[in-house]
Specification:
Elements (H helix, E strand, L loop, with lengths): L1 H36 L3 H4 L12 H11 L2 H32 L5 H11 L8 H11 L6 H4 L6 H14 L2 H9 L4 H12 L1 H17 L2 H6 L8 H6 L9 H36 L1
Helix pairs in contact: 1-14, 3-14, 4-8, 4-11, 5-8, 8-11, 11-14
Length: 279
């Protein structure tokens, strides 16, 4: 028993060492970004380069504000990412519920068709989507990014699998006997059960839309409609590279993303804990 305890302690210590090492490796790029954002470019170009934070964080960020509408671009990204995330959660959860629990003609074919679309590179649909946006007159408007992003094949697949494995059929049959409509079953029974799936999909989709560069670059040409990714790209000069300024803008643009991740991650863990207690 004693040797078994030692083995267990050593195993836990080894796991902790691996987790700490992985955390350090994962966090180092963010630390290095912060170091560059707080130093002048001359300090970065030294050999060896600066490895400790400097005193130029405010100055570098002031240079960012002088070149781009940083807060306006942040607001545009926040609006687009929030609207797309909310829309995807609602639409994909509805579709996932339908594919998982409802019986209708062509269900399997439609679901397979959705899965096939996941194998098509999004760049192939760039020209047709751009043509549709121009015909609708949506160029330089945020809805040109929001509306095409409301349908997510992975989100439908994810929700379908989660609903199918988490919501008992007996619970839905009992609700039908009580006279509940399909939407009421979805809203009052399915949604509370799949909160972890909501949190996970929200994290994935929000980060994807926030970091998206190609499609917003194509349809948002006016500087007043730029997202933060496009605005930061304009900081790059063809002749002189002020890395301190560029990484300062990148650092402050990453902070809201980290906060959103931490908030949704906390809700995700709480939802899992509540589900375990209820079960």
């Amino acid at each position: 028993m004693h040797s078994g305890g030692k083995g267990f302690t050593f195993s836990k210590l080894f796991i902790y060492i691996i987790l700490i090492a992985g955390s350090v490796i994962s966090l180092f790029p963010f630390y290095w970004m912060f170091v560059i954002a707080t130093n002048h470019t001359s300090a970065i170009n030294k050999v060896p380069p600066a490895i400790l934070p400097g005193k130029e964080l405010v100055t570098n960020f002031q240079n960012v504000l002088a070149k781009i509408d940083f807060f306006g671009a942040m607001l545009n990204s926040l609006i687009i990412s929030s609207l797309v995330t909310i829309g995807v959660l609602f639409i994909c959860s509805l579709a996932g519920f339908a594919f998982a629990k409802l019986n209708f003609r062509g269900k399997e074919f439609l679901f397979i068709f959705i899965l096939v679309t996941m194998m098509i590179p999004p760049q192939l649909g760039l020209i047709p989507q751009y043509y549709i946006i121009t015909q609708l007159g949506w160029l330089n408007e945020l809805k040109a990014v929001v509306v095409p992003g409301l349908i997510d094949a992975f989100g439908i697949f994810w929700m379908r699998q989660y609903v199918k494995g988490s919501v008992p059929d007996e619970l839905l049959e009992a609700a039908k006997i009580d006279g509940c409509s399909y939407f009421r079953i979805y809203w009052n029974i399915v949604c509370p059960v799949i909160l972890p799936a909501f949190a996970t999909l929200a994290i994935i989709r929000f980060m994807y839309v926030w970091n998206d560069f190609l499609w917003p670059l194509v349809v948002l040409r006016d500087t007043t409609s730029h997202t933060i990714q496009i605005a930061i790209r304009t900081l790059v000069d063809n002749y002189v590279q002020d890395y301190g300024m560029i990484l300062s803008g990148t650092f402050w643009a990453t902070v809201p993303l980290i906060l959103v991740f931490l908030i949704f991650n906390r809700f995700f863990i709480e939802s899992l804990t509540q589900g375990a207690i209820k079960s």
